[in-house]
Amino acid sequence: MTPSVEGYNILGAFNPGATIYNNQIILLMRVSENCPQEKKFINIPYYSFVNNKSEAKILHINKDDPQVTLKDTRGVFYKGKDYLSTISHLRLARSYDGINFTIDKKPFIAPSNETEKFGVEDARISKIDDTYYINYTGVSEDGYATMLATTKNFIDIERKGVIFAPLNKDVAIFEEKVNGKYIALHRPDNHGFGLPSIWYADSPDIIHWGNHKCLLRPDGSKWESQKIGAGAAPIKTKEGWLVLYHGKGDNSIYSLNLLLLDINDPSKIIKRCKQPIFTPKEDYEKNGFFGNVIFSNGIVTKPDGTIFIYYGACDETVCLATTTIDELLNLLKNH
C-alpha cells in the first residue's frame, strides 16, 4: 500500500466499514499516516483548503520551541492549539472471498474542508435501497464531528456534510426505516457529568436528526469504566436489532459487547450481555500502536446467516472474526 502523498508514511490500516457490492466485500479502511521526523523538528501532517481545493501539507515545529507540548502517541499542543501527529484518510479494499483483498492505490475519501483538517476516520457503511450511506468522523481543531457521504458504485461520491456536530461520533445508521423514519445510534461526548454513552436519534431525511434519547450508559464494570459507542449498522433478526458495540475500560482496554433492541421501537432495549463477548487476547490485539484495542465498525451478513466481523487491532491492522446470527442471539440469551 502506498502513502497518499509524497512525504507521508503509512502507519497502519484499521477500523474498516464493510458492505457487499457487486458480489464483492468492500472495506473502507482508515489509513493512518505520519511524517518522517527530523533531529531538530517535529513534522505534523495536515490539510489546508484554499479556493475549494484541499492540499496535504507538513507543519515543521522546532523541538526546542517552548510552545510545543507532546501529549501522547498522537497529540501535539502548539501555540494554544491541538494537532495530531498522525492523519487518516479512507481507502477502499475489495475481495470476493472476504479474506484476500485488493487495495486501491488512492484514497476514496480524503479531507476536503476545514471540518476534516486533521483527517477522516472510522467509516460506517449502511445500504438503504440502492444507495450506500457512508458516515465517518471528521477531525479538526474544533474537535470531531460526524460527516455523511453517499455512493451507488464506490466510484462517484456525494458529500452531504455534517450530520452530528462536535463532539459526536460512533454513528451507526440502520439499514432500513422504522415507522417511516431513518434511525441512528450516536455518541455525543460529555464533559463534566457522566460518561460518553450510546444515544438514539431519528430523522425524516437522514440529514436532520432529532428525538434524541440516551439509550445505554456504561455499566460501571472494568470493561466499560470510561465510555461506550456503537459500531456497524445494527443487524435485523427475528428477535430484534442486534448491535455490536465497543467499550473502553480500565487501562484503556477496548472490547466488544452485544445489545438487542426492539424490532419496532429501537429506542427500547430488550437485552444486553453482562460482559464482553470479544476482548483482546492475541498478541496482535494486545501489542501495537495503541495496545489492547479491539474496535469494530464493519460487519457483513451473508445470506446463510454467517457474519464477518472486521475489526481494527491496536490501531494498526484489519482483522476478521466469524460467527452467525444464531450464535450471537444465543450469547444474549445465556448472559
Folded structure, characterized:
The chain is mainly beta and 335 residues long. The chain has a domain at 167-335: 5 Propeller (Tachylectin-2, Chain A), CATH 2.115.10. The protein has helices at residues 283-286, 325-334; strands at 9-21, 24-34, 41-50, 53-62, 68-70, 75-78, 81-84, 87-95, 102-103, 120-128, 131-140, 143-151, 158-164, 168-173, 182-188, 198-203, 210-216, 227-230, 235-236, 241-248, 254-261, 269-272, 294-301, 306-313, 317-324. Strands 18, 19, 20, 21 and 22 form a five-stranded antiparallel sheet that branches. Strands 1-2-8-9 form a four-stranded antiparallel sheet, with no helix packed on it. Strands 10-11-12-13 form a four-stranded antiparallel sheet, with no helix packed on it. The longest helix has 10 residues, at 325-334. The protein starts with 8 loop residues before the first strand and ends with a helix. The model has no long low-confidence stretch (mean pLDDT 95).
